Structure formats: structure tokens, C-alpha cells
């Protein structure tokens, strides 16, 4: 049974940094495509960053040069380093996984496994 557990969220002032983690269990982590999504209440869930099994990253335009996605297959953990945070980045952040190559890496329907989310709040 695939389990994804996010951590690392919290409250930070604009310009600050946070690192999110997503611990995977119950599956062969290294073979899965992984991604981070975020959602604000009342809005659609949007893709933030994704990384395939060989480590190739994809980013939403809004976070390029500020966010870095990485994975540690030895620890079965996905990371999202978020720098220069803005109030607009306030959202619930979710980890997602799919057992194989993903074509549209930042779209929700490509992923069939989700964590419960971790809240990120950025104040001005």
C-alpha cells in the first residue's frame, strides 16, 4: 500500500525559505515519478514541480529559479526547497506519485497516489 507523508510546512515571512519533505513507503520509490502540487481553498490543485525516476525535474513557470525539487532514493524521500517565498505561495502542498513515466508532469490526473498535505503560510 502506497503511503506518502508530507512534512516541513509552516509559517514564514515573505522572502523566507522552507523545505518540504515527502516520505514514501509501501512501494519501490526509485521507480516512481514524483511531484509536488498545491491547492488554495476554492481553487484547483496546481502542479508546482515534478521529478521523474531518473531525476529530471520540471517546474511551473511561477516557481522556476526559486523552488528546487529533489529526491533521495536511498531514503525514499522527495523534497521541495522553496526560497524567496511570496504570500501567493500560501497553500496546502501535496506530494504525489505514479508508478511509471508521466507525460504531463504537472497535471493531477497523471498521479494516482497522494499524501495528506502540509500547510505553507507566507505572510507579508
Structural write-up:
It is a single chain. The chain is an all-beta fold and 124 residues long. Helix content is 0%, strand content 49%. The protein has strands at residues 3-7, 10-13, 18-25, 33-39, 46-51, 57-59, 67-72, 77-82, 91-98, 113-114, 118-123. Strands 2, 4, 5, 6, 9, 10 and 11 form a seven-stranded mixed β-sheet that branches.
Mean pLDDT: 97
* Radius of gyration, taken over Cα atoms and rounded to an integer in Å: 13 Å
Our estimate of the beta-strand percent is: over 45%
* Class by SSE composition: mainly beta
* Span of the ends, CA to CA: 40 Å
Helix coverage percent: under 10%
The SSE string, one letter per element, is EEEEEEEEEEE
In total, the number of strands is 11
What overall form do the CA principal axes indicate? globular
- Largest sheet entry: 7 strands, mixed
Number of helices: 0
Sequence stretches where pLDDT stays below 50 over 5 or more residues: none
Provide tags for this entry.
124 residues; mainly beta; 7-stranded mixed beta sheet; 4-stranded antiparallel beta sheet; 0% helix
Concise overview:
By secondary structure, this protein is an all-beta fold. It has strands at residues 3-7, 10-13, 18-25, 33-39, 46-51, 57-59, 67-72, 77-82, 91-98, 113-114, 118-123.
Topology:
Layout: E1 3-7, E2 10-13, E3 18-25, E4 33-39, E5 46-51, E6 57-59, E7 67-72, E8 77-82, E9 91-98, E10 113-114, E11 118-123
Parallel strand pairs: 2-11
Antiparallel strand pairs: 1-3, 3-8, 4-5, 4-9, 5-6, 7-8, 9-10, 9-11
Amino acid at each position: 500500500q502506497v503511503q506518502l507523508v508530507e512534512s516541513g510546512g509552516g509559517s514564514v515571512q515573505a522572502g523566507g525559505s522552507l523545505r518540504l519533505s515527502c516520505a514514501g513507503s509501501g512501494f519501490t520509490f526509485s521507480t516512481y515519478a514524483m511531484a509536488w502540487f498545491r491547492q488554495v481553498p476554492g481553487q484547483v490543485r496546481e502542479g508546482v514541480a515534478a521529478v521523474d525516476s531518473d531525476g529530471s525535474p520540471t517546474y511551473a513557470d511561477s516557481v522556476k529559479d526559486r523552488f528546487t525539487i529533489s529526491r533521495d532514493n536511498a531514503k525514499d524521500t522527495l523534497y521541495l526547497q522553496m526560497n524567496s517565498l511570496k504570500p501567493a505561495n500560501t497553500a496546502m502542498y501535496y506530494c504525489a506519485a505514479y508508478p511509471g513515466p508521466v507525460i504531463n508532469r504537472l497535471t493531477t490526473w497523471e498521479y494516482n497516489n497522494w499524501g495528506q498535505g502540509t500547510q505553507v503560510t507566507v505572510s507579508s
